[in-house]
Hints:
Blueprint: E1 5-21, E2 24-41, E3 44-51, H1 55-66, E4 84-88, H2 94-110, E5 114-130, E6 135-154, E7 157-167, H3 170-193, E8 195-196, E9 203-209, H4 211-223, E10 245-247, E11 269-273, E12 276-277, E13 295-296, E14 303-304, E15 308-311, H5 318-324, E16 327-331, E17 334-340, E18 343-348, E19 351-355, E20 358-363, E21 366-370, H6 374-377, E22 378-392, E23 395-411
Amino acid sequence: MDCSVTLWSRYSEETVEVAYRSGSFEVNRYSGAYSIGRLYSGRGFRVVSCAGECRDWAKSLLARLARTGDRTSTSVYCSDFYKGDFTIGSRTHLEEALAIAERTGKLLRDYGLSSEVILVSRHVRVEHSVEEYGVEARENRWLHELYINAYTLYMGSLLSTGFALASTTPKSLNADIERIVNRISERIKLQARARRFNPVHVGSWRVLLSGDAACAFFHEIAHLLEADEPVKLGLDTNLGGGLKVIEDPFYPGPLQRVFDDEVYPAWRRTLVDDGVVVDYLRSRLTSGNSRPGNGRGLFTRPKPMYYQLVVSPGDWGLDEVFEEVRRLIAVDSIVKAELYQGYIRIVPEYGVFYEKGSSTPIKGFEVLVPVSRLSSLLIGLTRSRSERYSYEKNMNIYEVAPAVVLEARISV
């Protein structure tokens, strides 16, 4: 659509950060407010911003910028804006935040682990207006992030792991702490027992990716479903495994929304259906023959990215996996995951080798999955699912994914 539209936004944030480290407390508070003007037109995208109020300055600058540059072939989706208010979450009182951080640190200490626990409580208010359409939309959001990092010395080596949680209510965070601390303790124990992977066994293996590893696997696939990326999976590409992947703004996770950063009304976008790629993540600048709804970023050119990526469960139970696959490597916690030369590359903190009913923790290896062969490598998905909260390009993201069984190359 050849059109022009200007989005005016006011972003204000108040953040309280509480840290608990080795019995000490740190409390820091900061706040700020910013004005943003974004112009979509046939000459491309323009954005200006400042601290505080600057509408007159922004209008003048946008008018000048609008006259610069040549016309582009970029099509702009100028219609369909959300109108109304949206509020989600509840405030954390300082005493409650201190109690959550201290309780987490003390539980880890009971396991003999040193730690740093950081609770970030953020209250964000965003007001949007589109004068051409008489649109006003407002979001009022509380979000609480809990970062837990635990470590210990074992036989001269430092063992460490971490976990991130997010919720719109502090009560939900508090309810999950004991479960997460138990998982952290188990991770450290497995690291302590892990043997270095024998290079003789490099090659093709059946691998079970669960927890953070499964979420990271689907996160990397989602990178190949962003409409603005030069390298992406083609529509109608078969990924196999009966996969169904949805960008779901209504899933009851921490990043629920009713509109995106471009004020497009939220809707469930199916990206992969029955294993086949059917759509991409899209913004107003990359909508193509579909619709926008995944624009991220107020201060930059909108990036088509997911807020909440939800992968439908399969029909395997974990017990069935170990019964059916007698020899495999299981990976849960990871150091990093990336797209690398046509592969999804996952570097685990550790793994567990299972064979004939016995298990051995292992370390010093990586998992490589060739993207071009996914349809022939995916074996199955579990009924149970895990979740992960993290940041990508300074924007928070959330995944819900089942464990996945697949063929992969193990390398060192």
